[in-house]
Structures are given as C-alpha cells and as structure tokens.
Amino acid sequence: MPTHILRLILLVVGFIILAIAAAIYLTPESFYEFGHYRADSVGEIAADTPQFQGPDYCEACHEEQHTDWTAGVHTVVKCEVCHGAAREHPADGGKLPIPDDTVKLCTLCHEKMPARPAAQPQIVVSEHAGEEQCVTCHDPHSPALGGDQAGEESDPAAACAGCHGDEGRGTGDFPSLAGKDADYLAMQLRNYRSGARENAMMNTIAESLSDADIVGFAAFYAALEGGAGQ
Ligand code: HEC
Ligand code: HEC
Ligand code: HEC
Ligand code: HEC
Ligand code: HEC
C-alpha cells in the first residue's frame, strides 16, 4: 500500500477514536434522556427565583394601593411595570423604588404619537402638564379623573378632593371651597376655563368642565359646611 494512503487511513482512524472518546467523556450526564438536550436543565430553570411576582403578591402588604389600582383604569399596567421587579422584596430588606420622575415614566405610554393606537389615551405633554409632575393631578394607581371609575360615580368631586380635601375644606396650599358662595365659585371656574384667572393646575382642570359641570361643582361645594381655610 502506498505510504500516503496509509497516512490517510491512520488519520481517519485517529479522528474516529477521538470522536468516540469525546462522545463518552464530554457528554453531560443527562443528555438525551428526553431529547436532544440536557434533561437536568429543565429542573435548573424551574428552580430559578422568579424576578416578577405579579400584582396578587403585593395585595397582602400594600392593600391600599392594590385596592385603588383594582378599582381604576390602570389594571392593564401591572405594579412591577412602574416599581420594577419585586424579586425577593421585602425579604431581601430592600424597598422597591418609587418612581420620582413621573413625567418621564408616564409619557412612555401617554405621549401623543401618530403611530400609537387611538385606544391608548394620549396627551401632548407640553400642553397638558408643562413641567408639572403627573401625580400632582393623577393618582398613579387609579389615574382617571372625573369619576368614571368603579366606586366613584357617586362622588363627582373625587377629582377635586385630591387637592381641595374630602369635604372641600382645603389641604396645605389648596384653598377651601366648602361653604363659599355658589355664584362666586362658578365665576372662578369660568375664569380658570377662559384663562382670565391664571393658575396652571386649575386652568388645565377647568378646560375639561362643561357649563353644567361648573354649576354642579359650585352647588356641591356651596352646600358643604365651611372650612377653616381661606
Ligand atoms: C410581605 C409583605 C410585602 C409584600 C408582599 C410586598 N411588599 Fe412592598 N414593602 C413591604 C415593606 C415592609 C416595605 C417597607 C415599608 C417602609 O419601610 O415604609 C415595602 C416597601 C415598598 C415600596 C416603597 C414604599 C416607600 O414608602 O418607600 C414599594 C414601592 C413597594 N413596597 C411596592 C411593592 C410591590 C409593587 C409589591 C408587589 C410586587 C410589594 N411591594 C410586595 C412589604 C411588602
Ligand atoms: C403607572 C405606574 C404605577 C403602577 C402601575 C403602580 N404604581 Fe405604585 N406608585 C407609583 C408612583 C408614581 C408612586 C408615587 C406616588 C406619589 O408620589 O404620590 C407610587 C407609590 C407607591 C407606594 C408608596 C406609597 C404611596 O402610595 O405613595 C407603594 C407602596 C406602591 N406604589 C405600591 C404599588 C402596588 C402594590 C401597585 C400594584 C397594585 C402599584 N404600586 C402600581 C406608580 C405606580
Ligand atoms: C405601560 C404603559 C403605561 C404607563 C407607564 C402609564 N400608563 Fe396610564 N394608561 C395606560 C393604558 C393602556 C391606559 C388605558 C387603560 C384602559 O382604558 O383600559 C391608561 C389609562 C390612563 C388614564 C385614564 C385615561 C382616561 O381618562 O381614560 C390616565 C389619566 C393615565 N393612564 C395616566 C397615567 C399616569 C399619570 C401615569 C404615570 C404615573 C401613567 N398613566 C403610566 C398605560 C400606561
Ligand atoms: C394640572 C393637573 C394635571 C397634570 C399635572 C396632569 N394631568 Fe392629565 N389630566 C388632567 C385632567 C383634569 C384630565 C381630564 C381632562 C380630560 O379628560 O381631557 C386629564 C386627563 C389625562 C389623560 C386622559 C386623556 C384622554 O384623552 O382621555 C391622560 C392620558 C393624562 N391626563 C395623562 C397625564 C400625564 C402622563 C401627565 C404627566 C405628564 C399628566 N396627565 C399631568 C389634569 C392633569
Ligand atoms: C391639582 C390640584 C387641584 C385640583 C385637582 C383641583 N384644584 Fe381647584 N385649585 C387648586 C389651586 C392650587 C387653587 C388656587 C389657585 C389660585 O390661586 O388661583 C385652586 C382654586 C380653586 C378655586 C378657586 C377658589 C377661590 O377661593 O377662589 C375653585 C372654585 C376650584 N379650585 C375648584 C376646583 C374644582 C371644582 C375641582 C375639581 C373639578 C378642582 N378645583 C380641582 C388646585 C386644584
């Protein structure tokens, strides 16, 4: 046999021995138990700690936020979309972050874009809120204003209560409305709506009020017992 053929045969035999040795010694233990993959990997993946726990997990400890969220329109936006993956919170001792820049967070989904489906509520942020944080007017857990949410139909003033207090008696820097003259209140609301009286918050809010809304709110607050504020 010519030497160059012999060399070729030896090379092929050597390669076959190497391949068989590799198949015997380098194949992971559980390979091909179920198919062309490592059976142990199934158990390893299943044993991973979940990163996201889902909203039901939060209910036991943050009942107030969970209740607001369940009643509102934001049930499509799960807690961890805004607060990040819970992982082992609170067992790992960490608090989940509270988003501090809501303009950045909320505009991710609500900034007006031509390509965005009309079913998703959209606003032109610069006209709608300016530099104002969205949580000044919207509860992130139940953001719709105007009492169109479950449980709020009976209280048209729920949208105002965040600033003017439950009984319209004012909170912090927000003036009391309770017990003030109905005509006076209606006139102020019309002035905010037309822009004759300027206040970034009230101008935005009054823009969406109809004449009937204005008369309704004025009568509602005029009938409440007067507050201690201005
Ligand atoms: C077993 C109870 C428990 C569960 C379940 C739980 N939390 Fe918490 N959470 C806590 C505790 C305790 C704190 C710390 C409160 C503090 O120190 O004021 C906290 C703090 C937070 C904070 C920061 C609040 C603050 O005032 O700084 C956020 C946000 C939060 N949790 C969101 C969530 C979300 C979202 C979920 C569900 C994915 C969740 N938590 C599930 C107990 C829990
Ligand atoms: C759309 C985003 C968003 C979603 C969804 C959301 N949060 Fe929040 N959450 C916020 C923001 C923003 C704040 C800060 C509120 C503020 O500054 O007034 C906050 C505050 C909190 C706080 C601190 C206490 C407080 O009320 O200020 C807790 C606790 C909390 N959220 C839990 C939850 C839980 C539980 C869920 C789900 C049931 C949830 N959040 C869903 C945005 C969200
Ligand atoms: C992940 C996307 C997402 C984020 C982030 C988000 N939203 Fe929403 N939001 C939605 C969707 C979707 C709806 C419509 C829900 C529906 O109608 O079923 C909605 C509804 C609303 C509505 C109700 C509109 C109406 O009157 O019908 C308001 C107001 C609102 N969001 C404000 C906010 C604010 C404020 C924040 C930040 C704290 C925020 N959203 C963050 C997706 C998001
Ligand atoms: C000064 C108060 C104020 C601030 C700040 C504010 N909003 Fe609003 N927002 C309102 C009022 C009032 C309405 C209801 C008026 C309406 O339906 O047109 C509303 C309605 C909405 C709607 C529903 C629009 C629709 O077409 O149904 C969305 C979405 C929204 N706001 C998102 C935001 C986001 C995101 C931010 C922060 C960038 C924000 N808002 C800041 C007062 C405010
Ligand atoms: C985001 C906070 C906020 C919300 C929500 C809000 N207001 Fe106001 N409101 C203010 C502030 C701040 C002033 C004071 C503005 C000024 O100095 O002109 C004010 C002033 C008023 C005044 C004038 C009071 C006076 O004595 O002259 C009336 C009336 C009023 N608001 C009615 C309403 C009604 C009705 C709603 C609900 C539809 C509402 N407000 C919701 C913040 C708010």
Explain this structure.
Helix 9 packs across helix 10 (200-207) and helix 9 (182-194) runs antiparallel to helix 11 (211-222). The protein is mainly alpha-helical and 230 residues long. It has a domain at 155-230: Cytochrome Bc1 Complex, Chain D, domain 2 (Orthogonal Bundle), CATH 1.10.760. Helix content is 45%, strand content 0%. The chain is built from 11 helices and no strands. The protein binds heme C (5 copies). One heme C (HEC) binds next to helix 3 and helix 5.
Give the number of DSSP strands: 0
CATH architect. name of the domain at 155-230: Orthogonal Bundle
Shape descriptor reads elongated
Going by CATH, what is the homologous superfamily of the domain at 155-230?
A: Cytochrome c-like domain
Question: Topology as H/E string?
Answer: HHHHHHHHHHH
Strand content: under 5%
- Unreliable spans are 147-154
- Radius of gyration from CA coordinates: 32 Å
Average pLDDT taken over every residue: 87
Sheet/helix structural class: mainly alpha
Q: What fraction, in percent, of the residue positions are helical?
A: 40-55%
Oligomeric assembly: single chain
Any idea of the CATH class of the domain at 155-230? Answer: Mainly Alpha
Query: What does the largest sheet look like?
Result: none
Q: Which small molecules are bound?
A: heme C
Using the coordinates shown, work out and report the CATH topology of the domain at 155-230: Cytochrome Bc1 Complex, Chain D, domain 2
Question: What is the count of DSSP helices, taking H or I runs of 4+ residues?
Answer: 11
Q: For the terminal residues, how far apart are their CA atoms?
A: 114 Å
